């Protein structure tokens, strides 16, 4: 779960990591007010949960007061990779003599905490690692192992810190490590860690990704307005609605609504749709043993999504029984109604009872079931996926 730069810097500040004076602005007027306190020259930095904002024109250096308002207006009218800019970090500009990289992550090959430093900051660290691996310096730690001062000092020497800068570098590195462990981070990155022309070290940028499964351990983050979100981009309105009902749901860019039976079956269904040339509009997990009412809410999310042209339903009954699956569909049809075609198959635990429930409801109110193609174990799941792709193409 990614944090905005201003959120990351606020947390960094609690650990004594030095930064230039800054303030968050959610309007042009707030940006002007912040500049009066911070002073010029300053930098306006778009706050979006995605990379590449500099290349997209999302960072502006402002030298004079008269240039601030028009530059701020440009940023507030900007979209970066489709995400609108709704906030700007107003920050004092610094004279940078050298840019370093300092980051901490988890090496998934051996599950060790890895501190990474380089004298080539300000660019993608992946590019540095690929093209000049000798410039990447690493130290690995077990989860309960301490990062010692002498190790931080040695790391500073390896990235070219002078005698006068070693203490500042090691202090920042140790503070970043403490932050990383304290907040269950998956990534904590300062890129660049700027060396100013006067020899000071400043965190010029901050990127943090937290383990959202550990948020319950950090109630202070909720007080800051930091809640579950994507690694890139904010939650969509449907994702927010799904979260209110505790439904694991993710919007994708396709047009086939996915109504699965469990996460594993849902992943397989998404793979089938892609294999046959379609594009899923979402990923969704019903959870173990969902109630019919919960299943009805899941269907409503798909039917109300304007991007969805057809709904693909696939239930393999295990803990989640097929009779509950059928009951949920019937509740949805009677209370909400279906506005787009749906092709569905169910098999497994209680599938015959599910078919019976569905058929009896259809006999009572056939008009509610006109848009549904319903199948049991006799039809392979591959055929259902193909049919969903066909219906999506016909609906264009």
List the helices and strands and how they pair.
Blueprint: H1 5-14, E1 22-25, H2 28-38, E2 42-46, E3 59-62, H3 65-76, E4 79-80, E5 83-84, E6 88-92, E7 96-107, E8 112-118, H4 125-131, E9 136-141, H5 149-158, H6 163-182, E10 185-196, E11 201-203, E12 207-210, H7 219-223, H8 237-244, E13 249-251, E14 256-260, H9 263-275, E15 282-284, H10 292-303, E16 310-317, H11 322-335, E17 342-348, H12 351-364, E18 372-375, H13 381-394
Parallel strand pairs: 14-16, 16-17, 17-18
Antiparallel strand pairs: 1-6, 2-3, 2-6, 4-5, 7-8, 7-10, 8-9, 10-11, 10-12, 13-15
Overview features:
alpha+beta, 396 residues, D-amino Acid Aminotransferase, Chain A, domain 1, Rossmann fold, Dna Ligase, domain 1
What is the domain tally? 3
User: How helix-rich are the residues, as a percent range?
Assistant: 25-40%
Counted by DSSP, the helix tally is 13
Fourth-tier CATH superfamily name of the largest domain: Succinyl-CoA synthetase domains
Number of strands: 18
How would you describe the shape? elongated
What is the CATH top level name of the largest domain? Answer: Alpha Beta
Which strand-content bin applies to the residues?
Answer: 15-25%
Low-confidence stretches: none
Q: What CATH architecture of the largest domain do you see?
A: 3-Layer(aba) Sandwich
Mean pLDDT: 92
| Gyration radius, in Å | 26 Å
CATH topology of the largest domain: Rossmann fold
Class per helix and strand makeup: alpha+beta
How far do the termini sit from each other?
35 Å
Largest sheet: 6 strands, antiparallel
